[in-house]
Every structure is written in structure tokens, then in C-alpha cells.
Amino acid sequence: MNLETHLSEHDEDVKQVILHVSEVAKKISRGFATRQGVSDSSNIYGERQVAMDVWADELLISELRGSKLVRHLASEEQPDVLTFEDSTSDLGLTIDPLDGSSLIGVNLAVGTIVGIYRGDVLSPGEGMLGAMYVLYGPLTTLTYCLREGVHEFALDDNGDFVLQEENIVIPEGKIYAPGALRRDYLPAHRGFIERLEAEGYKLRYSGSFVADVHQILHKGGVFTYPAYAGSEMGKLRLLFEAAPMGFIVSQAGGAVSDGRRDLLTIKPEAVSQRVPVYIGGKREITLIEGMHKENTS
Ligand code: AHM
Ligand code: MG
Questions:
Q1: How far apart are CA 102 and CA 200, in angstroms?
Q2: Residues enclosing ligand 1, CB less than 6 A?
Q3: How far apart are CA 156 and CA 161, in angstroms?
Q4: Please, which pLDDT band fits residue 64 given cuts at 50, 70 and 90?
Q5: pTM
Q6: Which of 209, 210, 245, 271, when mutated, tests ligand 1's pocket best, judged by the most ligand atoms within 8 Å of its CB?
Q7: Domains detected in the chain
């Protein structure tokens, strides 16, 4: 079954916007060969953009604006939410055009992450209509969730996204993907990581959030980019990375937390808001939340 058929029961504007992103993703997947290298610009977080970051961001913005399907668009590479007054729909989208882009130069998997809202995107993730991501690896895959299961498609030789796995459920597994430097860990987090290591969890951290979470969605375990000495809010962005991937993993039977509470209940105060992230199996998320409680009592 292809993506369009699979989406047929959903609202027309939501269906069309996912198909639109899937078409842009095909262009992005073909763009890597000729767009290696860095740009001369930095984004609002002061991170040097690679050429693909800039190109993928511009391409997504112009195609989504042209689709007239999106009223509000927030991009990780842009300082403000864009509003398209001529939109025929009230959809709000968040995009991380290329997550993990520091890995492009070494040919490891990176991805596009999209959150889908009805209206304002500065809303708690639990109110999302859905979310999706495209992973550019040996295969280009597209995973989407519109509250009715998490489904994965792979781009075939004919240029179609065809169903690969339906109703994905996160299994139990012993993988951990810990961001930040060990020397900067805060006490509860240090205890959490030591506990996982004592239980025999295997290290799997690539530097691409979308790829690392994709692995955990399929194999179980936990990804974390915690609060650390020097950054009490961690590194990852609530709106562009944590909420959409957290929505998908939660819908697959897992959970997402800032270490203390369900991250999908947090109302973003700014587009650039960072948040500590724990995402994966319910068991691991319950464990870190419990350790934080013990640490403050
Ligand atoms: P990006 O969106 O600019 O790629 O930044 C986010 C990335 C995540 O994909 C990844 O988990 C993290 O930053 C890696 O950071 P670090 O190099 O500190 O491990
Ligand atoms: Mg990112």
C-alpha cells in the first residue's frame, strides 16, 4: 500500500500536507550528493549551518507556502513563526528541516521532523493532530502518526513511499543513547545512567536525534539529552525535536519526559525553547522521573 492510500481516511488538508512533505522529502533525499559542505551562515542558536540545512529549510518553506495548506510555520532554522495569510487551511506546522546535520559530512543518517497542529504551534504537544519524520539513511523512510497508530513507509525504486510496517509498538529493549558530557551530568541523571549501565544497557548514540530515536522506536530503550551543568534546559528544542518525536513514541506505547513530567504537557513559551529530553520505553521514563523525585525529597 502506498502512503496516499494509507492516508485516505484522514482529513483532506492533513492528508495533503503529509503528501506534500513526502514530495519535498524526495527532493531532499536527492539533494545530498551536490550539497556537501558548510554555508557561511549560523542559525538562531549560533550553530553553523551546513549547505543542506539552508537549502532544505528554504525548500520546505517555499513548497509549504505554495501549497496553501499551512497557515503557521515554525522552522528550527528561523527566528519567528511564519504566517501565510493566503492559506486555505488553519494547519500549523513545526519543521526541523535536517536534524543531525553535523553528520551529513560523514554520511550518517539524518532526518526531517514535522509536528502538525490545528492552529497555533505554540501549544502543548499533547494537542497535536499528528507528527511525522523522514529518515535519510540507506533507505529513505517516512514514519507518521495521526493518533491512530504509528506507520512506516520506505521510498522504493519507483519513487513511491510504500508501507513497510503498520502500528509500530515500541518493544522492551536495552539500548541507551545518552547526550551531553558525562562530567557535566547532574545527580539524578548520573544515577539513572549508572543504573542502566548496571543493567547491561548497550550504548547507541550517533549524534542524530531522529536516527537514534528511530532505532529506539524499533528496538526499545531510551534516548536522553538531559539538563547538564552549564545548560539546565539541555540542548534539544521542545517544538522542533522533542514534541513531535515524543508524540510518535508515546503513540507507539512509549513515553517522553523532561525527567520530571510528560513533556507533551509543556506549553512552549518561545519557538526556540530548549528542554531536557528522555524518550523511549515507559519503564525507563518512569525510572528517571522516580529518581528525580527521590533526589528532591
Ligand atoms: P541539529 O538539529 O542542528 O542537528 O541539532 C540537534 C542534534 C541532535 O540531532 C542530536 O541528538 C544532538 O544535536 C547531538 O548533539 P551533540 O553533538 O552535543 O551530541
Ligand atoms: Mg534538530
A1: 29
A2: 47, 76, 96, 99-102, 179, 207-209, 225, 235
A3: 6
A4: very high
A5: 0.96
A6: 209
A7: 3-165 (3.30.540.10), 175-296 (3.40.190.80)
